[in-house]
Fold this protein.
Amino acid sequence: MNIKFIGFPIKDGCHVNGADKGINVIKNYIPFEKIINIKKYNTDLETIVKNDLTLAQYISNLQKQNFLPITIGGDHSLTMGSIAGSAENNNNLGVIWLDTHPDINTHKTTTTYNIHGYPLAASMGFGLKDLTDLYINKTKVNYENVVLFGINDIDEPEQKLINEYNIKCFTLENINKYGIEKCITEAINYLKERTNNIHLSFDLDAINYSECPGVNVPNRWKKGIKEKDALLAVKSFLKNLNIVSMDIVEYNPLNDINDKTLNIVLETKEVIDFSNNPKKSRK
């Protein structure tokens, strides 16, 4: 399937400067089909909802033309748009959430009021109606079709929701105990039993801070998956599952050190290219 990269430089889901500046760096290396101009409105919520609507429509249209849309951000609030657009075309959508945070807070449970901590909850139908009903008025993904992978920084209300709905979760502790390959295999098998269409959301803060400092909000302990293991997970998910949409989020060049995080974005792009067309890839 042909790939189309979309740039989405939104920063309004996170009260940290710099999330909107990554696309200006990345565009020198990645050929974007489109860089969506983020329009500002009266509130962060209005800005996110209206711009995510634009993204959702764009994602949906690309899929209808048989493209694999990959959105690069920007903060993680954009995923409400990318999942919504994908859910229009793919019934029983599944989600792999490769992230240090589960992002299943709502306006009632958050302590930071950063909307980039809401997107998976909203996609599962929890939280503000403006977010849960974004683009199409239905639950975008059933919690039984969700896999949290690499999670290491969980708020208490998020843990309660994970426990209440028995959401499949591979924590950093699980990965360190059982090994990355075993956890990847279990995640793939879990989703294959439930759905054929998967959205892959890759938050760069899943990676250990020492290797990947250029993110908006590192986890509280600055611990994470090794870079090589995160890229192995992305490669394995692309190879063994039907990934119908994807995003790469939370790159913040203002926090990067010696372009470490930029290089991980570019390595991820190489993994995507290889998975899509091994013969043409440099790797």
Residues 181 and 232 are 8 Å apart (CA to CA). The first helix runs from residue 22 to 26. The beta strands are 2-8, 34-35, 67-73, 94-98, 146-151, 168-171, 198-203, 243-249.
